[in-house]
Amino acid sequence: MFADLLRRLNAIPGARPLGADSARVAMAALMVRVARSDDSYSDRERARIDALLAAHYRLPPAEVARLRGEAEEAEASAQDTVQFTRVVKEDVPYEERVGVVETLWRVAAADGIDAEERGVLRLVANLLGVSDQESGLARRRAERG
Questions:
Q1: How many independent structural domains does the chain possess?
Q2: Cα dist. 45→41, 55, 63, 129 in Å?
Q3: pLDDT tens over the chain, length 145 residues
Q4: What is the spatial distance between Cα 71 and Cα 85, in angstroms, rounded to a whole number?
Q5: DSSP secondary structure of 58-84
Q6: Residue 128 in 3-state DSSP?
Q7: Which of 32, 15, 12 is nearest to 24 (CA)?
């Protein structure tokens, strides 16, 4: 079933194939998408993404840099956000998706959350099946640190 999903996602015209560790790339690409949504992809956001990826996946710095680079390429060539949320939704159990949204709020909070980032996060939360209320609580936790 997962292989079929990857084939369908990779068949989207213009989409860059995600590869073997597609769930990691999709999650990192969502982080990059949130960070880039305000047209300012700052060093603080990159550092926050790197720290979150290293902590979550227990990766050394070189692997984190490789994963973020792959995610940046995937995000830049993606036609829409659904390409990534589908993979994450398939890979992450419902009970853990609020944590995904909280992680994305942490990326947005790295340099201050603006309207564009809020809009992208509302979309992503919705696509992941996370309610506005749960997303709001996740945002508050992310902003507290």
A1: 1
A2: 6, 15, 18, 25
A3: 333 433 444 443 444 444 448 999 999 999 999 999 999 999 999 999 999 999 999 999 999 999 999 999 999 999 999 999 999 999 999 889 999 999 999 999 999 999 999 999 999 999 999 999 999 999 999 999 7
A4: 13
A5: T--HHHHHHHHHHHHHHHHH-S-SHHH
A6: coil
A7: 32
CATH, residue 30? 1.10.3680.10
14: in domain: no
Residue holding tokens 């860059």? 16
Residue 114 sits at φ, ψ, to 5 deg, of: -115, 180
Residue 134 forms part of a structural domain: yes
Tokens of 106: 């942490």
- Evaluate whether 117 touches 38 at the Cβ level (below 8 Å): yes
**15 belongs to a structural domain:** no
Range(s) of the domain holding residue 128: 2-7+20-144
Joined together, the tokens standing for residue 138 give 């996740």
Closest by CA to 23, choosing from 69, 67, 60, 54, is 67
